[in-house]
Backbone:
């Protein structure tokens, strides 16, 4: 599902806010990007809607999500125990960058960027009941980072963050 918001996409280019791209340019590029990504992971967008309101002139609304389903017999709900393995897959690009006082100026508009071919493989893996029945708990690994993703799995986990691979040097 994709829900977006833009100001008037038919507004003349000379009415564009200083330092901003014209609304029709943003809307076309966003739709192209979303379409490309969905096609790469094999998803049809069942609901797509763009709302138009002057309030979106300075900051566009861009939201979407995917809902998955699997047969009930492939879902296990158990309490994690000491010694269980935690597997980390993924992470958000924008949140893993180092930020400072200038970040709001240089990367405030960044969004999470995935890896469509890998995500497609993960979606296929999650359809495999033999695999999913090994999972006691599962959580998304998004912009909240390792602490949020793991912290929501069980109470009182101790995590050796030095053993967590990093996307690139400089992350801590």
Residues:
């Amino acid at each position: 599902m994709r829900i977006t918001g833009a100001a008037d996409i038919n507004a003349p280019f000379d009415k564009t806010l200083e330092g901003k791209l014209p609304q029709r340019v943003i809307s076309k590029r966003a739709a192209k990007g979303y379409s490309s990504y969905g096609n790469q992971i094999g998803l049809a967008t069942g609901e797509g809607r763009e709302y138009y309101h002057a309030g979106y002139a300075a900051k566009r609304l861009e939201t979407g999500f995917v809902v998955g389903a699997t047969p009930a017999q492939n879902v296990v709900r158990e309490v994690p125990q000491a010694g269980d393995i935690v597997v980390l897959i993924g992470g958000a690009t924008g949140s893993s960058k180092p930020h400072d006082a200038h970040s709001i100026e240089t990367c405030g508009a960044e969004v999470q960027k995935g890896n469509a071919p890998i995500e497609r493989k993960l979606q296929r893996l999650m359809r495999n009941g033999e695999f999913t029945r090994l999972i006691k708990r599962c959580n998304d690994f998004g912009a909240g980072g390792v602490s949020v993703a793991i912290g929501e799995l069980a109470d009182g986990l101790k995590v050796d963050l030095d053993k967590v691979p990093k996307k690139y040097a400089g992350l801590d």
About this structure: The first strand starts at residue 2 and ends at 6. The chain is about 25% helix and 10% strand. Residues 23-40 form the longest helix (18 residues). Helices lie at 23-40, 103-106, 116-126, 129-132, 145-151.
